[in-house]
């Protein structure tokens, strides 16, 4: 990444997470006649080359109710107006809005409102709603529960309007091919997609409970069987770069949160790029694109639902396998007491994958995926996030070192 961009984004992170962020929030609230009370950083979203977005819990004045504001240096296409304030701070342009009025996700406000969501879905009883995931300017996931909903529970994905039809078509493509992906129940062109709830429990839960070598082999074999069923029509979809192929971008994000390890991170990214150049990724095939334990629901040791199919398309099988192994390998850094049995499973799965794809490519690409996870270790409510981030960095280096 260009050093000027890299330096600018480091400055943006410092601006939006440091004391000056209070001035930004105060200026935004002043536009609607309010004053800023206590505030704190809740979440930091950094997309290298695409800006920085920070979410804050705030109170308007000393006795005001708690609210949630977002500020971004990323690209915003909506014009400033009601609910969206444009500010300039030094060399940076910052847009601020109050959740859920995301300027790039126009359907989010309705998805978060029980009454308006019921109207969207055509049900008489307003469901309860819970925001499960939110990537400002990009996407959100809301869980809705109520007796009038299909199976009593549906999931609502909110995306940018221009991506809605592509996402819906991926779900349809998979279900028509017999792949256990959630069925589409409702789609609106402004970016709201309602899907049936998945069946089963997360593979992460299976890993937490522990599994012996025999069960581990059986589970991975079933995952690969599902990958074998991905339809050939997915080859006609746009190809997205694999995580490892963007190692330079993720190295930049990692350096922002671990600046003291910047040289080490740069060497890692260079090593990944060199390893990708000299190893064989194998033939192009239909791929999930973001295959890891949270996106696989299991029932009696078999995959019963495949989640998060946004990245379905042409790629290399080695990248799906590397993604799974990489995510599993960081679980002990994320929660060591929860996943004591992961090393044995990981050793088993790595050996199995090495029989199906080039082991050198597998390790290099797993290193790239782990590098992409380093910056995500910094999160609210994790006072020990730095040791987690450093553990992930060391894990990426171990992957790159090879079999």
Helix content: 40-55%
Radius of gyration: 22 Å
CATH topology of the largest domain, which one? Aminoglycoside 3'-phosphotransferase, Chain: A, domain 2
CATH architecture of the largest domain: Alpha-Beta Complex
DSSP summary: helix tally? 13
Question: N-to-C SSE series?
Answer: HHEEEEEHHEEEHEEEHHHHEEEEHHHH
What does this structure look like?
- The protein is an alpha+beta fold.
- It has 3 domains: 3-98, no CATH class; 108-196, Phosphorylase Kinase, domain 1, CATH 3.30.200; 201-401, Aminoglycoside phosphotransferase (APH), C-terminal lobe (Aminoglycoside 3'-phosphotransferase, Chain: A, domain 2), CATH 3.90.1200.
- 42% of the residues lie in helices and 23% in strands.
- It has 13 helices and 15 strands.
- The protein has helices at residues 3-17, 20-30, 108-111, 114-121, 164-176, 203-209, 213-228, 247-257, 262-278, 317-334, 342-356, 359-374, 385-401, and strands at 36-47, 51-60, 66-72, 84-89, 92-98, 128-135, 139-145, 153-159, 184-188, 192-196, 201-202, 284-287, 296-299, 302-306, 313-316.
- Helix 7 (213-228) packs across helix 11 (342-356).
- The two termini are 29 Å apart.
- The mean pLDDT is 92.
List keywords for this structure.
403 residues, alpha+beta, Phosphorylase Kinase, domain 1, Aminoglycoside 3'-phosphotransferase, Chain: A, domain 2, 5-stranded antiparallel β-sheet, 13 helices
List the helices and strands and how they pair.
Layout (H helix, E strand, L loop, with lengths): L2 H15 L2 H11 L5 E12 L3 E10 L5 E7 L11 E6 L2 E7 L9 H4 L2 H8 L6 E8 L3 E7 L7 E7 L4 H13 L7 E5 L3 E5 L4 E2 H7 L3 H16 L18 H11 L4 H17 L5 E4 L8 E4 L2 E5 L6 E4 H18 L7 H15 L2 H16 L10 H17 L2
Antiparallel strand pairs: 1-2, 2-3, 3-5, 4-5, 6-7, 7-8, 8-10, 9-10, 11-13, 12-15, 13-14
């Amino acid at each position: 990444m260009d050093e000027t961009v890299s330096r600018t984004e480091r400055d943006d992170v410092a601006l939006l997470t440091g004391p000056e962020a209070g001035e930004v929030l105060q200026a935004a609230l002043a536009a609607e006649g309010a004053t800023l009370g206590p505030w704190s950083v809740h979440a930091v979203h950094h997309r290298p080359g695409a800006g920085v977005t920070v979410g804050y819990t705030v109170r308007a004045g000393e006795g005001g109710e708690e609210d949630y504001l977002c500020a971004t240096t990323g690209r915003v296409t909506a014009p400033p107006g009601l609910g969206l304030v444009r500010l300039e701070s030094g060399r940076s342009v910052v847009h601020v809005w109050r959740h859920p009025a995301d300027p790039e996700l126009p359907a989010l406000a309705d998805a978060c409102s029980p009454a308006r969501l019921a109207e969207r879905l055509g049900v008489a009883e307003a469901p309860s709603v819970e925001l499960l995931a939110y990537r400002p300017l990009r996407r959100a996931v809301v869980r809705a529960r109520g007796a009038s909903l299909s199976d009593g529970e549906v999931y609502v994905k909110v995306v940018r309007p221009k991506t809605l039809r592509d996402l819906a078509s991926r779900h349809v493509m998979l279900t028509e091919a017999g792949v256990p992906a959630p069925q589409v129940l409702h789609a609106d062109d402004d970016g709201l997609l309602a899907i049936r709830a998945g069946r089963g429990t997360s593979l992460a839960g299976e890993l937490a409970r522990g599994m012996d070598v025999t069960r581990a082999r059986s589970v991975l074999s079933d995952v690969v069987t599902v990958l074998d069923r991905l339809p050939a029509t997915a080859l006609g979809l746009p190809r997205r770069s694999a995580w490892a192929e963007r190692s330079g971008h993720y190295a930049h994000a990692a350096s922002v949160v671990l600046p003291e390890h910047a040289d080490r991170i740069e060497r890692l990214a260079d090593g990944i790029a060199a390893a990708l150049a000299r190893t064989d990724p194998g033939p192009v095939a239909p791929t999930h694109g973001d295959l890891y334990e949270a996106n696989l629901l299991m029932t009696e040791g078999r995959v019963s639902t495949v989640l998060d199919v946004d990245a379905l398309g042409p790629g290399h099988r080695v990248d799906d396998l590397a993604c799974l192994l990489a995510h599993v390998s960081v679980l002990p850094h994320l929660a060591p007491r929860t996943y004591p049995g992961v090393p044995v499973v990981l050793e088993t799965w790595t050996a199995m994958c090495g029989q199906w794809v080039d082991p050198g490519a597998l390790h290099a690409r797993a290193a790239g995926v782990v590098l992409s996870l380093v910056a995500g270790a910094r999160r609210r409510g994790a006072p020990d996030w730095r040791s987690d981030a450093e553990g992930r960095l060391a894990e990426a280096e171990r992957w790159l070192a090879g079999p």
